[in-house]
Specification:
This protein has two domains: about 160 residues, no CATH class; about 170 residues, Heat Shock Protein 90 (2-Layer Sandwich). The chain is built from eleven helices and seven strands. The two termini are about 35 Å apart.
């Protein structure tokens, strides 16, 4: 049932955000991964298309001139071969132009200037190919009187029109499919990121932690009303922060520490002197960013997997080292076996993979468990879609 509800949430989320994804692709340069690779399979496909098209055009022209279909003679075979070569090179040229036009540099151009350049390049390339692969070879074979200027001009015009037709109905369709693939890829990233946020929210609102906190609150009420009131306020602040920050991709370390402070207060109230915390954060690290809830997950992980007493307290040290946030605790495995799926650590790693090429590191020595979270420098863009 929960899985079905989650799928519905994701469906409506993607449906509402697909327009945003398209706008993001339009306003931001997507690196074109396609290159001009002429593999054997593609070469044979291009040859087949050129052969079919040249043969079809040839017999159409023969029928229009002579009123009947005839097998080509010696000279006609030469013309047919030249048309085939011309179309084959035209296919390759169209593909190269399409890759060039949809490359990163051209995407930075004005939206009106780019199609003008695209048309001009297609026409120029067509005329050059027609001149080199059709006109000049035929002029060396046939006598000069066979080349009537009006027919030559008409031939170049018709060839250019056919080239533009092929480009906009073949290469543009390929570009459209490539754009759709980029939209689907972006949508998939959005979906995975949203799933990571849902998983993070599920981890943060831990029923076991909430149950223990409420038990502590119940015990505090008859003993110390003031502490019970402060405990309730901190618990409220903590869960309000969870809800406020869940929609954010990144938050400043300063805000993350404010949430952690409330969480630490709850833990110290519950465990007393059995758990010790040490903070050493450089001022310049406060405005660096990290995924919300990451620090709280690491604190929760340390509490979950380690025992603590007043004589042997669990010590958790939080410190910044340049653009790294280190969370370090001494290892004191619990006597009872604790089941672990590493969901929290996996969740942190997954969210970082969407946001940066830097990855968190988790190390385990004989005496300590060390987690290192990259602190990210975020540039503010005017585009609201960032």
């Amino acid at each position: 049932m929960r899985s079905r509800q989650t799928n519905k949430i994701l469906y409506f989320y993607l449906r509402e955000n697909i327009k945003l994804i398209k706008e993001y692709i339009d306003h931001n340069s997507i690196r074109t991964t396609e290159k001009f690779r002429l593999t054997g399979k593609r070469f044979l496909k291009d040859v087949g298309i050129a052969a079919f098209a040249s043969t079809t055009f040839f017999f159409i022209i023969v029928y229009m001139h002579q009123g009947e279909l005839k097998l080509p003679g010696a000279y006609s075979l030469i013309e047919l071969g030249l048309v085939f070569i011309f179309l084959l090179f035209l296919i390759w040229t169209h593909r190269w132009i399409s890759i060039l036009i949809h490359g990163d540099r051209m995407k930075r151009m004005h939206s009106l200037l780019r199609p003008i350049i695209e048309i001009a390049v297609v026409i120029l390339a067509t005329l050059i190919l027609d001149l080199l692969l059709n006109y000049l070879p035929l002029k060396m074979i046939f006598p000069p009187e066979a080349f009537i200027p009006s027919r030559v001009r008409t031939s170049f015009v018709i060839t250019t029109i056919i080239s533009l037709f092929l480009y906009y109905f073949v290469e543009r369709e390929r570009s459209k499919k490539r754009l759709q693939a980029e939209i689907l890829r972006s949508a998939q990233l959005q979906k995975e990121n949203f799933q990571a946020q849902l998983e993070n929210l599920k981890n943060q609102v831990n029923p076991h932690f909430l149950f223990n906190s409420l038990n502590v609150l119940v015990s505090l009420i008859p003993q110390d009303a003031d502490r019970a009131t402060k405990f309730t306020r901190k618990l409220s602040e903590l869960y309000r922060s969870f809800l406020d920050n869940t929609s954010q991709q990144l938050i400043p370390l300063r805000k993350e520490l404010e949430v952690a402070e409330a969480y630490i207060y709850l833990l110290k109230t519950r465990f007393g002197e059995s758990v010790q915390f040490e903070l050493e954060i450089a001022p310049e690290a406060m405005e660096l960013h990290l995924p919300p809830g990451s620090l709280q997950v690491l604190l929760e992980n340390a509490i979950k997997h380690n025992g603590s007493t007043r004589k042997k307290p669990l010590t958790i040290a939080i410190a910044s080292h340049g653009n790294i946030l280190e969370v370090k605790n001494n290892l004191q495995p619990r006597m009872e076996e604790v089941s672990s799926t590493n969901t929290g650590l996996t969740n942190i790693t997954s969210r970082y993979s969407f946001l940066s090429d830097r990855k968190p590191e988790f190390k385990k020595t004989e005496d300590h468990f060390i987690a290192e979270l990259p602190l990210l420098k975020v540039e503010i863009h005017e585009n609201p879609h960032y």
